[in-house]
Please model this.
Amino acid sequence: MESWVSLLAADPKPWLLASDEPAARWITLTQLLGRSADDPQVVGARAAVLEDPLTRELIGRLPDWEVDNEVSGHSSPKFAPNLLNLLADMGLQGGDDPRVDAVLQQMLRHQDAAGRFAAYSRSGHGNTGRLPEPVWGTTLCDTHAITDVLVRFGLGADERTRSALRCMAEDRIATAQGEAWPCIPHSVTGFRGPGRKADFCPMVTVEALRAFAWLPDSVRPPGLHASARTALRAWRVRSEEKPYMMGHGYQFKVIKWPAFWYNIFWMLDTLGRYPELWSEPGAAPEDRQALAEMCACLIAYNFNGDGQVVPQSCYKGFEAFSFGQKKQPSPFATATLAAVLARFDALTEEIRAVDIRRLGSSKGGTGVPLPPRA
Model:
């Protein structure tokens, strides 16, 4: 049995495999059991995802990227990259549905002169007042999120995506916290996100690291490990430094479903794709400890006494999905978080040693201690 399973009150895999939720079965087979894409059970689970009426309902929510793109912000469940990321998490790929492919092609058509992908908006996603007419413009929250989903859906080799990735690498700077990505002003409205100009932005840094993580090591830009350490530093110094509007307290630790924005899941799901942070001979002890603490909090604040996840916070409009209600365990949420923990299997004993009740923290509760070793 994998070591990480011993951190939960019970092994969730048998329950997940018996679930009637095809996306949960697909995640379990591919990310927890390591089955290949051509495994008959994997093929069957993915086919069931594509046939699921709830999957089709999600696809139907995708906006016309060039016309119907008015959203309240980048954390909105209506923001097309968020819906596309959710569909990818459920097992969708490029070529599976023409409506998905159409939105991706629309995204590819709009870039600024430097190569950053743009979004169509009246507000520039900021409190600058509505413009008389929508404009195509970009912030790093736009281009990073768009590039992320384009790579996930198999369009990383497209020259337009490659251009955005090159620009992404060039936009990384030496911030006050370390090598990372800052907020840059909206290209039309001039609105700049919260925080000091010299500071790194936790969200766009995590988005950039996610986008590069889908690529083979051979084509990733150098120095990403340093940027991942900068992202991780935000957790280590959370009691002394709080990035504006992006703290690390209760709302960071308890996942709001579906997971669209900066929280402990996005951090661990992203940093878990950079194993040099904890598994290489030169891994820094303080990074290993920070990752172990976050994994312990992920368990304590989200898993119940049966090794399952009952959503505690949900966006409105997803009540028909297991992750959109707060009364029953969600197979999808459980499989998603278990897949994150599985990446940190080598840290199991360090995770177990964390006493979350003694962690210094920004505001927000204490969680539930991990179960003892069986």
Summary: The radius of gyration is 20 Å. The longest strand covers residues 119-121.
